[in-house]
Amino acid sequence: MNIDIIGDIHGCFAEFKQLTEKMGYTWETGVPVHPSGRILGFVGDLTDRGPNSLQVIEVVHELVINQNIARYAPGNHCNKLYRYFSGNKVQISHGLETTVAEYESLNSRDQKKIRKKFMDLYERSPLYQIMDEGRLIIAHAGIRSDYIGQYSSKVKTFVLYGDINGSKHPDGSPVRKDWAKSYKGESWIVYGHTPVPEARQVNHTYNIDTGCVFGGKLTAVRYPEMDLQEVPSTMPYIAEKFRTSFD
């Protein structure tokens, strides 16, 4: 099992392409393919906020669904876009407005095609990926040891949003407990969701959301080597979007 897991892309297609090329993937067929058979993994939040969300959907759908040479676990932004495409009433805010603007600029035929591709990708992917006989888990916001193998609504909330209890910071953002500090499992948990200035390894966990869409970096961790690859963002840097304290 040789897999390169990429953090939250959020529509930053140029950085996604650059990072895969840096890791030896070629785009001759229009999607990244590795000559030695390595595959890509995605921690979710493919879309929203960045400039090219629909392009990211196209490529990830092709890799995961049509060619079966990548693995994807959805994030909370993916869940919200799925609900939007399903016709549910969702607030078009917190980044969804950029994806919706891209979508609404298409003709109705192309809208149907991209909507079907994304819904297909979402419906055919598990809430989190258990790989390499349980030695590797890809989960958007992480997962507790005792939740692995479970799929209740409580587990879904944890995987999509992290360890939250409903309380909020003064700025309105949710208070998220640092579940990684108390993680004692042997499986590697690779996740994103909370932007950090540098990829953060705690126990057998790796947060690889380095805030590309907020001007940080796009980061991948290569498994089983557990070494990092990254490329700088082309987006403006927004310091307050990064979490630097975990006390």
Automatic annotation (TrEMBL):
Domain (Calcineurin-like phosphoesterase): residue spans on this chain: 1-197
Gene3D superfamilies: 3.60.21.10
One Pfam family this sequence matches: Metallophos
CDD domains per record: MPP_Prp_like
Any one cellular-component term (Gene Ontology): cytoplasm
NCBIfam families: PRK13625.1
Listed name of the protein: Bis(5'-nucleosyl)-tetraphosphatase PrpE
Native organism: Peribacillus castrilensis
Name of the coding gene: prpE
